[in-house]
Amino acid sequence: MRHLFLITALLCAPLPALAHKVVAGVFPSGDAIEGELGFSNGDMAAGTEVVVTGPDGAELGRTITDEDGFFLFVPTAPVAHTFRADLGAGHVAEVTMPAEEVAGILGAAAPATPEAEPPAAPAPAADAGASMAALAETRRRAIAEAVRNEIRPLRREIAAYREHNDLQTILGGIGYIVGLFGLGFYLAARRRLAG
Q1: Residue 52: closest CA among 77, 69, 89
Q2: Which residue from 26, 23, 50, 24 is spatially nearest to 39, judged by alpha carbons?
Q3: How many CB atoms lie within 10 A of CB 26?
Q4: Which domain of life is it from (predicted)?
């Protein structure tokens, strides 16, 4: 009889859900906004359309994620940009980049415009300085791109870690342990009373 009760209790115990959360993030990337979409279990949203809207809800543009769930969008106005994507099965990703960050991107892109039109007759010393500055800018961009590529997998791992080790999961595990001890004490007390 005791074994039947224990088996019934174990069968009625809830199983862990296999749910996952949506991962969505945006960050400055040179003169563009780079973002990622996916799930906390590591699955990324490849080939997903992302709709970009402004603070008034007007559409600013659209973009599509690559095979790794990343997308690029070049802003044209210094307003907050909201990125929204339907990932299916009721999962909707929505993330907003504040207007201040977008203005910073547009401000960083502004100096590149004057460089596009070099002076008509640069002096040799000024030409050497300009080429060194252009080389430094090229190196800076290459380093930034390399760092972004290295950070991408880390972001996924952090999101997966958060999904599996959040406070609710930890408290649930402690609750199961306390419940099993309680069940053990209950069965031991019944044996003492019966014997």
Answers
A1: 77
A2: 23
A3: 22
A4: Bacteria
The CATH class that applies to domain 22-113+124-164 reads mainly beta
Could you report the per-residue pLDDT of 31-53, keeping only the tens digit for each? 888 888 888 777 778 888 999 99
Q: Where are the domains of the chain?
A: 22-113+124-164, 166-195
C-beta separation of 48 from 57 below 8 A: no
101 or 145, which is more confident? 101
As given in the structure block, the two tokens for residue 78 are 């210094």
Give the predicted TM-score (pTM) of the model. 0.52
Retrieve residue 24's tokens. Answer: 């969505």
Unique residue bearing structure tokens 């862990």: 16
